[in-house]
Amino acid sequence: MLTIDARRESQERVCNEVAAVIYGGGTVIFPTDTVYGIGCDPFRVEAIDRIYQAKQRPDHKPLSLHLASVTEFLEYVNGNATATLAARRLMPGPVTLIVRRPAFIYDDVSSGLATLGFRVPDDQLCRAILDRVGPLAATSANASGERPYYGDQDSSALPQVDLLIENGRTRFGAESTVVDLTSATPRVVREGALSLDYLGERLGPVARQTPKARK
After folding, report:
1. How many whole angstroms separate alpha carbon 139 and alpha carbon 132?
2. pLDDT for the residue numbered 125
3. Does domain 2-203 correspond to CATH entry 3.40.630.30?
């Protein structure tokens, strides 16, 4: 696995190296504002398969789409007023917004689900990479069930990819908060870097994920 320390290299070189791997159908571990992600071209099914294999990730767990800007995200939501409001008030930032999956995005990215999570990270290098290569289908860069990678840790246990971009500790050092926007009231699926109280201040009434009752 080739490793590049972005703290010692120019941003242009980092972005060009990522582009060479992604355009060649490869996989990359890259920094975001929350955790490091493992990503690939969302239109390369074989690269998506490599992410699942590298992480030993269950087939039913979807990836998310990482984008460079809020403007780009709004192009995916087709006038969805709730998603537009949430994006303008929470993005860029440590949040994943779940909306209906656009028809032109392969269902391999969403594990066959009709919905898809989107991120616009609040990290300058990450957004420069995304601006250079386009959207990345991604998830956290750790083996399934293991602790996420926040940077400046032992990287030997990371999934094997073509390129690792190291850039030190992530800004938030926590997972993104996941918000489902597919119903009338936004619903928090996972509380991460953004608290439920903060979301309520920004979005109004927000529901919490209700645990499934088991008999």
Report:
1. 19
2. 98
3. no
